[in-house]
Amino acid sequence: MIKIAPSILSADFSDLREQIGLIEQGGADLVHLDIMDGHFVPNITFGAPVIKKLRKVTKIPFDVHLMIKNPENYIKDFVDAGADIITVHEESTIHLHRVIQQIKSYGVKAAVALNPSTPLESLEYVIDDLDMVLIMTVNPGFGGQSFIPQTKEKIKKLKKMIEDKGLEIDIQVDGGIKLDNIKEVVECGANIIVAGSAIFDTEDIVGTTRKFKNI
Ligand code: DX5
Ligand code: ZN
Fold it and tell me: Known catalytic residue: 204?
């Protein structure tokens, strides 16, 4: 089953309750929440207090993508705010194994994201503990960037790595996914699709979310 996770990074921040209502109506499976600190990535978004308020306006699971340095210092805040999945970047922490265990200790799903230039080999000794791997298909930091084609090979390789190990781990892709390339990434092995601008920069957010669901 393919899941759609609209990223509210491109949503109208003045009315997030309404915007989340629209993707809910369109059948979104997850809400993708991009947390940026201005250090790990050259952009700043929002933090746990915003998620805590949003938790009250929808039942859709929250998929929290941390693009912050030293994520270990903030895991509890995001758990308390209502995160269902927490994704940390491999490049953002020295103690990746420890932070994965920390996330799991709260009963929340743990995921690791890899920047486009980070090899899959960096997951070798932690992959057994993961619920999801996020393959960044753009360099993190901004919505509306172009899909990096080399990442398709990486998704395929990850899919094989997961199958060879007999694991059941979701493969999420994030960045530059549109209605016209979603099929390609799904064929490579991705099963959770993040889309920001392709959903929120359209006139009909409900209809576009539905199209993503039905493709
Ligand atoms: C980028 C974020 C993405 C972003 C994707 O750093 O992680 O989730 O919202 O935006 P689009 O779909 O517009 O590339
Ligand atoms: Zn993201």
Answer: no
